[in-house]
Design goal:
It is a single chain. It contains four helices and no strands. The two termini are about 25 Å apart.
Length: about 130
């Protein structure tokens, strides 16, 4: 499972670089919209890196039977799509496709971090 999260982190990281270049060089006009787009890029990149951490944690022998890396990976990936994706679509089209998708994505990102905290706690206890 660790390979999946490393691939997902790489894909989200790579596409964040592309989105950032697009947002910086191609979005003209309303500066608030450009900032909103770049906020989506920032959150996508940070959580792509978090998926790399999930890959590392999932590869640890103490975590092989744990669902925590799976929960974190799903939460981070879904959070990126809902939060950053909603911002990207809104900035480019002016349409809010699904009401509440961005906040739901933010909550999923927080759930991913909570799962990482729990995994850290489990690793800490296993080392003791």
């Amino acid at each position: 499972m660790s390979g999946l999260w490393l691939i997902m982190g790489g894909l989200f990281g790579m596409s964040a670089v592309g989105a950032g270049a697009y947002g910086w060089h191609s979005l003209d006009g309303d500066e608030d919209l450009r900032l909103m787009f770049m906020l989506g890029v920032d959150y996508q990149m940070w959580h792509a890196l978090a998926l790399a951490a999930v890959a590392w944690i999932a590869s640890r022998p103490e975590m092989l039977s744990s669902k925590l890396p799976l929960i974190a990976g799903i939460a981070f990936s879904s959070g990126i799509v809902l939060f950053s994706g909603t911002l990207y679509i809104f900035v480019m089209t002016g349409t809010l496709v699904v009401e509440g998708a961005a906040p739901a994505g933010g909550y999923l990102m927080m759930a991913g971090w909570a799962a990482l905290i729990a995994a850290g706690w489990k690793l800490r206890k296993a080392a003791a």
